[in-house]
Every structure is written in structure tokens, then in C-alpha cells.
């Protein structure tokens, strides 16, 4: 349950007005209906999407948050009576690769015999462009993808359902204010553009990915679905959670330098069919959110309202801190055993993956979940 100060924003429907999308704020076990609340800038909340609020910028974000912190009379609905929707129009989705532990682990598994970290990794954040149109809200079923992939020992691909379906536990940063084409966004300007944080599961089909990713990067192996938590936690609610990032001590290109480069002391908890299987710590992530946005725009690429900038898989140094099954099971070689005895090298049909986030002190920041559905055809 969210506390009374986090005040995340989302979009919901409820049976008192069936099918009508409304903007809301979560306050403990209730949802404040912003389409009818007495708050500053009410017109921003009249359209059933966060888009107008996101674009309105930090001064408006702060004014609304201050009014909410002072308290408003309602109306409120019980959290148990609302259905959450994708809260904003996802513009572009970019997925970084900012965790050194994850990048090292995947390097060993995908490129055995080579250097685990590629030479470019330490010089700047690496990323690929994902598929915004298949970003789905928590609770949406994820159909097992099909595509070309190699079978064990084969040299030519077969076409069929992925046998190596995985999750990736990540944090997402949601862009509010766009930037101009041709004008890089400095690390100092991060908070002028980015509104808040959500939890992300970047579902990945490892067999499809391994076959296709050289030389252009992930495509079908990751584009079928990316799940996001429905409540966007404002950065303003996370000021006390800032921690230094490892990259702060490195010798960096000027555009990546950041006064007091900060990450967040957020812990993730990944549950498979209700059982915690790993607890990835975001605080160990090498590249900061501001460095990711500076890198994404350094060539002049513009930000758009609704851009989702994901951290990449969050993996800590410990064996039970990694953010994906491929790491937990060492490429599928060492299946995990769930309480009750079920083994998983990869996700099975009808498995449910839930990833929740909280601060070191326990403050809840949201959850993304999704169930695997059988392949079509
Ligand atoms: O090392 C690779 O070739 C692949 C890495 C990934 O699958 C990770 C990716 O999606 C980025 C991330 O989540 O860190
Ligand atoms: Ca990813
Ligand atoms: Mg994806």
C-alpha cells in the first residue's frame, strides 16, 4: 500500500462510471478522483490521461503535489474498486543497460570466451530503441512470442514459440516536458523534463534474442510486450532516496558529468507465482538516470512527452540480487526450485511474474505483474 506522502498518479476506471477513464492519485488504500477534486489546474485532469499534466512541467507538478500534501476533500474510491489503465501515451521506449552486474553476467552468457563487458560499456550508457506500442499496463496477459531461433545444437533456425521466456526487472523514467530537436539535454536539466518513476518488466525471449541480435540488436526477442506499473511516482517524492552512483567517480566525457550524480535507493522484489525469487537493488546501478537522458539526447535527438526511459535490468552483485531468470539459472543450466518443488529454467505458460519496488526504509513504490499466456497458433 502507498503511504500518504508518495502520492503517485495513475488512470483508472470504476463501476460508478463504467468505462470512463479518470486521473487519480493513490493515498494509502484509496484513490482520489482528480477529475472531481478541488485542486489547482483541474483542466489538466479532465481527459482520462496523464498527458496534459506530464507536459505542464515542474512548477505545475510541484503546485499540484503541494496541494495534495495539504490534503483535499475528495472524492475518494477504495483502491479495491478501481481498475488501472495505461496512464499516458507512451511515445518512445528506450531501454538502457546501466547495471554493470547485469551487463557482465549477460556478456558471459551470450558471448562466452570474450570480455564480459564490451569496451564501450564503461565510456557511456548503452541502450537500444524498444517498441512503445507494445508497452502494456500491469495485469495484461503476455502471449508467449514465436519467432526464428536455434534449437539446442542446431545451426539453422526453426520457427516456433520461444522456449526461453524470461523477465527483466527494471525501473522506468517517464518524460513529461519535451526537448527541442538539435538541443541536447544536460545532466543538470534532467528534472526539468522527467516527471517520475515506474516499475518495468522487459519480457525477453532469450532464444529469439540470441539468434537475431547480431549485428543490429534486440528485435522480436523483446518487442512483443513490456509491462509497466500503473502508478507513476513523482521524482519529488523520492528526494530523500537519492544515493551516489558508481559512475560518479569515473573519468567521463563532459556531457556525462553530473554535480553529485545520483541514483535511487530502491529495492525490487521479483515474485514468480507468489514466491520471491530475487531482490535486485537499484542503488548498485552504474549509470544514473540523468546520464541516461543526457546520452539519449547528446546527438540532438529530442525527448517527447510520454517517453519511457528504462534503466535496463537491475542486477546487484549477489546471486539472489539478479534481475532476470537467465542470470538466476545461469543460462537455464541450473533451474530454480520453487517452494512446493516446481522447477523453472525459463517461464512456463500461466506463470505469473510480479515485480514490486520499495525504498530502503520499506516505503512502497508500486508493482508490475503479468501472466504468461500460451503461444498463438
Ligand atoms: O548482452 C546482451 O547482448 C543483451 C543484454 C540484454 O538482454 C539486456 C537488455 O535488454 C538491456 C537491459 O535490460 O539491461
Ligand atoms: Ca531490458
Ligand atoms: Mg520489451
UniProtKB/TrEMBL annotation:
Family annotation (SUPFAM superfamilies): FAH, Fumarylacetoacetate hydrolase, FAH, N-terminal domain
Keyword Protein transport part of the UniProt annotation: no
Chain residues that bind Ca(2+): 95, 168, 170, 202
Organism lineage string: Bacteria, Bacillati, Actinomycetota, Actinomycetes, Streptosporangiales
UniProt name for this protein: fumarylacetoacetase
InterPro entries: Fumarylacetoacetase, Fumarylacetoacetase-like_C, Fumarylacetoacetase_C_sf, Fumarylacetoacetase_N, Fumarylacetoacetase_N_sf
Active site: 102
GO molecular function, one term: fumarylacetoacetase activity
Binding site for Mg(2+): 202, 222, 226
Ranges in a coiled coil: none
E.C. numbers: 3.7.1.2
